[in-house]
Design a protein that fits this description.
seven-stranded mixed sheet, single chain, alpha/beta, flat, disordered C terminus
């Protein structure tokens, strides 16, 4: 066997093993493929057997905040029941006594007269009144499965009996514990159903149709509603071919997986499924919406508390998932994954790779490519055809990947030009490396000359550091003397890394600097800069920036923060403060946003530390972040009266100790500005920082007050 065919056979064995014994990444890709089936071909809503009565925001605004008194829920159930629905499912857990019951209110108001308190205690509880509303009305209460036993409910829940036909009971999805409603409400209901789901990756793809809850086989809420609606005394379960189960309720037959779960076949979110509880309580809903239907009652007005993600990319209320399951059962539109599906997928992979092993080494590239396209078309047709025709979930992702890998190996081994291509790639890589090195030198050359600035303005000391995560990066800093008493500085961080970020960085740096040089309010300058950068931003990049103007006569600092890390102020007394996040969002994110200017007065000897998120988001080998807390500790331990270079060096060394041998995850930029006082002499006289920090380390763009660029 040729080396190419031997390599293709090895790939075939590898991918076949992945299909038959899938690890977690394989399962994740498989479920994403199944989601793609549903997104491309969502279920068409053919019927409306279920209606959802939602306690939405409007209802809460009209009837009071949640939780309601149970009397109000009783009123809602009574009004729904008056329309003669087939069954009512309560998609909520009422596990605690009503705190609005008369007895509870009497206990909460000891100042009531004894006669009034006695009368309240004599009244029936709100839970009793709700139980009376539930009794005899085909109402099904909810049960939630728990992954650990609840000491309050050690006994199994009451559930309708299940008859196992022809075969042993399989290993169902098991919940060791459960949570339900009050016993008084539970006894008054006609049934109890499970509302737990099997969400993977925060997407609800399957729900347990039947499950083992604390040792008792318990049906799903929707299944129990079918049973109560049809008056069937019990469920029956039998094994089917393909390792599936058939769950029967009267004349209804529902296919389920071996563990009792069922794949949900989703349609798009449809507001027509919903009726506001406010309209029901107000008598504004026609009885025809409920008559002979399965009615679900749930809360949707609590933000995203009970919202679930679906394979269609939507977030819907959890109660709508129950309604979708009722619809697919009513329309007989199911999805199943039989036990033989992985074997079929492995067989498709074997047949496809064997065909390519015969064609590719003996044919020209166009013929081999046409064979590959034909094989992929057959695999895609098999997957989508099984989904649309029989509701069978076939995973064609891994057969497709296996075919592509095998084709790549076979083709690479038969192409005589492979060595030439590698030489071309090496030459291109060498040219690219040279261009990157030149770009690095250019970027470092754009850094400002801080020595000239400190000679002109002896009232300030300044040190800065720039370390790109790659050869070149998107972080930048700049300083500019506006007049005899004011100095402008900015630290920015462009979205992205590498050469694109570096090119955009140069544009942003020049534009912001030019906008500040025009004069006027700093916030207005940032607004102008954002508008000018946006006009020349076809890739829709954005930049965070902190800009400031320091008056060296008074220590007054004007600043504007455009979505950047808020800087720190280290006072002469070694107190650490963080400036408020005033200004606005990153530049180029909101059109015509007007940035505002904030003010902070520095005292003699105060130091301002401006940083990029490459400091706080520096990551070590354990994938832990450096964080603002670690930075603040490093600053608090800085020696009182430390020069900017000493502060910068302490932070840089602490970040390096934390990161260790991990690769840099982001560009790192620091700028420390110290105001010594109106005459240039603060608590400590300015001194040459170049002797206070290790400048021999491979650091790009470290500048000290003397002006050395390293």
């Amino acid at each position: 066997m040729s080396p190419a065919r031997l390599a293709a056979a090895s790939l075939l064995a590898f991918f076949g093993a992945l299909i038959l014994v899938p690890p977690a990444p394989v399962d994740a890709l498989r479920e994403n493929l199944f989601d793609a089936y549903q997104r491309l071909f969502p279920r068409e809503r053919q019927s409306a057997p279920a209606t959802i009565v939602e306690i939405d925001e409007r209802t809460l605004a009209e009837r009071g905040q949640w939780p309601w008194p149970r009397t109000q829920i009783a009123d809602l159930v009574t009004r729904i029941a008056a329309a003669k629905p087939a069954a009512i499912g309560i998609d909520m857990l009422l596990s605690e006594p009503d705190r609005f019951s008369p007895r509870a209110l009497a206990a909460l108001m000891p100042e009531l007269p004894e006669s009034a308190s006695r009368q309240l205690r004599a009244l029936p509880s709100n839970d009793s009144r709700l139980a009376a509303a539930l009794r005899g009305r085909n109402v099904v209460m909810s049960i939630a499965g728990l992954e650990a036993p609840d000491p309050r409910r050690l006994a199994p829940p009451a559930a309708a009996p299940v008859r196992w036909i022809a075969g042993e009971q399989p290993e169902l999805r098991r919940f060791p514990g459960w949570l339900g409603s009050l016993d008084e409400l539970d006894r008054a209901a006609a049934g109890r159903g499970l509302i737990s789901s099997d969400a993977t990756g925060r997407i609800v793809r399957r729900v347990p149709l039947i499950a083992d809850v604390a040792g008792t086989v318990t049906p799903a809420l929707t299944l129990e509603m079918w049973r109560v609606a049809t008056g069937t005394p019990a469920f029956s379960v039998r094994e089917q071919r393909g390792g599936l189960l058939e769950v029967a309720v009267g004349d209804l037959r529902i296919p389920a997986q071996r563990n009792g779960s069922i794949w949900l076949r989703y349609s798009r979110h449809d507001p027509a499924r919903f009726v506001s509880a406010a309209d029901v309580l107000g008598g504004k809903v026609s009885a025809e919406l409920f008559r002979s239907k399965l009615v679900l009652v749930g809360v949707t007005g609590l933000g995203l508390l009970d919202f679930q993600a679906t394979p269609l990319g939507e977030r819907v209320p959890g109660v709508e998932i129950h309604a979708q399951l009722i619809e697919q059962v009513f329309d007989n539109d199911f999805l199943v994954r039989p036990a033989w599906a992985p074997w079929l997928e492995a067989g498709l992979l074997i047949a496809a790779v064997l065909l390519l092993m015969w064609i590719v080494p003996a044919r020209r590239v166009p013929v081999s490519t046409a064979a590959l396209i034909g094989v992929l078309a057959v695999l895609l047709a098999a997957g989508f055809g099984a989904f649309l025709g029989r509701g069978i979930l076939l995973d064609i992702a891994w057969p497709v990947l296996g075919v592509l890998f095998a084709f790549s190996v076979l083709l690479a081994a038969t192409l005589a030009e492979a060595d030439g291509q590698r030489r071309v790639l090496r030459e291109a890589a060498a040219r690219s490396a040279g261009e990157l090195a030149a770009a690095y030198r250019i970027q470092m050359g754009l850094l400002p000359d801080l020595a000239a600035l400190t000679r002109t303005l002896p009232s300030i000391q300044i040190a800065a550091l720039l370390e790109p995560a790659r050869t070149v990066g998107g972080d930048f800093f700049d300083c500019l003397q506006l007049d005899r008493s004011r100095v402008f500085f900015v630290v920015g961080d462009v979205s992205g890394k590498g050469m694109p970020a570096a090119v955009f960085m140069a544009l942003c740096k020049a534009t912001i600097k030019a906008a500040a040089a025009r004069g006027g309010d700093l916030g207005a300058a940032m607004t102008r800069a954002s508008a000018e950068i946006s006009r020349e931003n076809p890739e829709q990049l954005f930049v965070t920036a902190f800009a400031g103007i320091l008056d060296v006569r008074t220590g007054m600092l004007e600043c504007c923060n455009a979505g950047h890390e808020p800087p720190y102020v280290l006072t002469a007394a070694a107190a650490l403060e963080r400036l408020p996040n005033a200004g606005g969002p990153p530049l180029c994110t909101l059109d015509e946003f007007e940035y505002v200017t904030a003010y902070r007065e520095l005292g003699p000897g105060d130091s301002l530390l401006v940083l990029s998120d490459g400091v706080t988001e520096a990551m070590n080998e354990r994938l832990a972040l450096y964080g603002s807390h670690q930075l603040e500790l490093a600053l608090k331990f800085a020696r009182r009266g430390s020069t900017p270079a000493e502060i910068l060096g302490a932070v840089r060394d602490d970040v390096r100790r934390f990161v260790g041998n991990a690769l840099a995850s982001d560009d790192l930029t620091l700028l420390v500005l110290r105001w010594t006082g109106p005459s240039g002499s603060g608590p400590e006289s300015p001194e040459d920082d170049s002797a206070d920090v290790d400048l021999d380390a491979p650091v790009a763009g470290l500048l000290d007050p003397v002006g050395g660029r390293h």
